[in-house]
Amino acid sequence: MSKFTDTFRNIFKIHELRQRIIYTLVLLFIVRLGSHLTTPGVDAALLTESMKNQSSDSLFGLYDLFVGGAFHNAAIFALGIMPYISASIILQLLGAVVPYFQKLQQEGEEGRKKITQLTRYGTVLISAMQAWGVTVRLLNLEVNGMPIVPDPVRGIGWVLSTIVIMTAGTIFMMWMGEQITEKGIGNGISLIIFIGIIARFPFAMLDEYRLIQAGQRSLIVEIIIFAFMFLIIAGVVLVTQGTRRIPVQYAKRVVGRKIYGGVTQYIPLRVNTAGVMPIIFAQAIMFIPNTVLSFFPNNEFLQSVANLFHYQSAVYSIIYALMIIFFTYFYTAIAFNPKDVADNMKKQGGFIPGIRPGKQTSDFIDNILTKITLPGSIFLAIIAILPAFVSAWGVTGQFAQFFGGTSLLIIVGVALDTLQQIESHLLMRHYDGFMKSGKIKGRR
What is the pTM (predicted TM-score) of this model? Predict the structure, then answer.
């Protein structure tokens, strides 16, 4: 414990690191503040009342998770940073199939700048479309016959102003994310999503405390639940950092009077190359049926179908798990190209011992990647369906989200990346890191 306390003190001894952390915290505070400022023209009291019966088992619930409750509050930051994430994913997928984007990805720094510019344009377009959808939803919400948006306010002027405000909110959050990455600590975009998710944790803990206080759960059972949660987090950290290292030997080259190469390096193939993306894709698709069927509350047949897609049903869990395994392989194939790795190795005079350069190297890497992706995908599937099982055991729904799924993977991944950057600053100035031996490894 004293080791951790000393490390924490050392963090604030370094002026630059201290300034970066304070800068990051200030911008994250602004993010949280903006998620509670209701959009002008919306009756906040009626909105709160209407949201009490809204189900989290829908696309709206998933979206609200990523924006830290801002969507639920119809705040100026209601869209969060998700339009930027969507634009980034679209451009990444286009890079796998469209030659123009493939060329940009191979052009180095200039190509990266062009892709960043296109991502920003895409963010504005997606934000405007989503903001328009939010205005339509708000105009249709009523509580006891009273509209959420009062009659004097309703109109094309309010719709246009709301679209502008929410789009500007997303652009401002995108700017803050970039500023955190450049002048703060950690990845700004990831930290904005992280702070939105982690903000729910105190309320989840409060729900658990109320259960104990009301006598509905014993303290021993609560301790067991927290121990189980600790083991799950440890497993997620282990798999997130897990890699299969492939040795690469570089031949010696004589350039002038210097000798280059002749060393052994490693290609780290991650057990979970796809990260959290398979769960996001699968969850978004699995929530579509309930989102659509929620518009037909009086149809008994459709509601019986909706029950099959409830997140605690066996049918939902099986289909959900299979989709995650599929998307893990799909996204891994997009994110990591063995052929490009083999070609780069060949150009630099590198080779895997016992494997011929070129196609055989590509096939060898692809074979290993396929094998290690299987346990990684199965682990992701188990983590994704764990909240449903934990909820069935009596854990409150809000607290169950931190036992697995998208929330836990994002929290662990972002925390590891941020701690790795802090540790790098400490080691650079000859201070000890967080661990007695070795260094913290991030996701990348």
Answer: 0.79
